[in-house]
Amino acid sequence: MIDENRAQAYLQLIYTLLNFPNGEDSQILMDNLELLDLRFLQACEIIAATLEEDGEQDQANYLRNIASHIGEFIK
Q: How confident is the model at residue 33 (pLDDT cuts 50, 70, 90)?
């Protein structure tokens, strides 16, 4: 089980990624390297699935794309 603070940090990072213009995502991720782990990827998928259910396909795809790239580096 992840602690509440870390879960909040994951959600905040995901929110930041979804609400900043493309091109800034690399810097945002670099500034938050300590959060990039398998649990972050799981959080991305949960949020992406929720976005998809809400009809936000573009944001869901964007989040899954970011998670896919991060996954290449942390496995």
A: very high
Confirm if 38 and 50 have CB atoms less than 8 A apart: no
Show the domain range for 44: 35-75
Whole-number pLDDT of residue 29: 94
pLDDT-derived band of residue 1, with 50, 70 and 90 as boundaries? low
In a domain, 23, yes or no: no
Who contacts 39 (Cβ-Cβ below 8 Å, separation ≥6)? 2, 6, 10
For residue 34, pLDDT over 90 is answered with yes
CA–CA gap between residue 72 and residue 12 (Å, rounded): 22
CA distances from 74 to 46, 60, 70 (A): 19, 21, 7
Evaluate whether residue 13 is within a structural domain.
no
